[in-house]
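thread: overnight batch results

M.L. [08:02]
morning all. the overnight job finished for the chain we discussed friday. pasting input first so we're all looking at the same thing
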Amino acid sequence: MSSDDEALIDSAIFQEPPGYYPPPKLATFESRILQSGEGLRLRLVGHNPLWGHHLWNGAQVVTDYLYDHKESLVRGRDILELGAGAGLPSIAAAIWGAKNVVMTDYPDEDLVENMMINVDAATDVFPSSSSIIAVQGHVWGADAEPLLANLPSGRRGFDTLVLADLLFNHSQHAALVSTIQATLSRSPDAKALVFFTPYTPWKFDIDMAFFDLARLGGFEVNQVVKRIMDKVMFKDDRGDELLRRTVFGYELSWNDLDV
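M.L. [08:03]
and the structure it wrote out:
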């Protein structure tokens, strides 16, 4: 037997049969009608270990909150979203007259590509005087200069930050606070919106510990929303159902500015 024949036999022994691995999950789509009437069809990655394949309750509720306060939180402002996933709040802010929008998530190729697809798909509903919307990968706690580079010359911070359903990443709380410190404009009217649902209710106190870190980091923390959704996102999960249906919303602002 030749060495080539032996190689063919070896490769056949270690080759998985057809269908051994499950096929990759395909992208899914969620349709949403904004409060202002525009329809969006958002693409979600088929599956992602970073949870980008869901349209989270926090993202939907913070989008409504932005609309309700668009004159003070959106119009003419520079906006940064962290952990954007499908990017619903960012796209809505661009439609509602933000000056600059930077949509970010972990620098995973599928996540970043998906954000770009959703921005492109929403182009038709952007106003003629559309804001500038950029898509970037960003690791929380990393150098913020690439994010700040999207701002007009002379600006050193964003007016509004959006963090929707990120607090279940308990090990990343300090990194999130660090990024807020590095990117939120040091202005009395600058706000970081932190909206979340306690999807693991038995860890609710750990979720809330984020705000203790935020206070230590120089921020005033105010609760602005408590909305009970019609149903839970994950029906087979355990724990208090009411908590798993509840979205809590907080505003962070600097508490150490000279007024």
